[in-house]
Automatic annotation (TrEMBL):
Name the UniProt record assigns to this protein: Peptide ABC transporter permease
Main location: membrane
Mode of membrane association: Multi-pass membrane protein
Organism the protein comes from: Kitasatospora phosalacinea
Coiled-coil stretches: none
Amino acid sequence: MTTISLPPAARSRSGNRSRNRYVAGLRTWRGVTGLVLVGTVALAGLLAPWLTGADPDAQGPQALAAPSGAHPLGTDDIGRDLLSRVLHGILTDLSIILTAVPAGALTGAALALLAGTSRAADLVVQRLFDLVLSFPGLILGLAVTAILGPGRWPVVIIIALAEVPYFGRQLRAGVLVQREREYALAARVGGAGRARVLLRHVLPNAVDPLVVQGAVALSAGVFIEGALSFLGLGVRPPEPTLGSLISGSVAYLDTHPVLAAPLAVTTALVLGFTLLAEALNRGART
């Protein structure tokens, strides 16, 4: 029996329209500002070894030193170069969220596809999403670190778990809409099995909302990592992260305002991802 599907040209045009909408969104002031903020911060982190020759973990004789030629942002409370620690902290944060968010997206997508196979599976997956969402991010972090202890990988797991239900629900909603469209019905009438219709026809047309959710998740990932490290539940010292740098600088901000640099960088990163999410969302709706 012959399987009926969308012509390749039609699917190509649909994909091109989606890409064009996102590109148009990124060309707005929100998109450009977001790209500049995220790109500047990310580039600074990637170029950390070349932008500063100081060891981020090396302690010097002068604690809380003022900015100078040797230390452009001064030193922290135990004499470590602040600029070097901020730049390497950016690199640590990016490595964590760029591992955790795709892991959460893939897990959520897999569960959403599983939910689309039967009503029983859908019920189980939805209750699982509800269970994860019933725990605020920080409470979920406390629970995971109580079991695994603080560290880089527990933070990755926490961020991924926190994002699974959001990606899963976004994709599930798209699947529910797309599988009732004419092309999906035609494919089923033509003899295509449930899995084939889901993976070949429905999924490619249901993933668009995940692009916007990805930008939102990156912003949330920065916040979660910062909050956990601020509370001492994140990456273990002396490895720098933006959250741990903020935590260590709070007590000295009134006398050494330059120690607010990690907070400014974190704000720029979160704001950049948020603006990108808004730009992509506006582009998707046009």
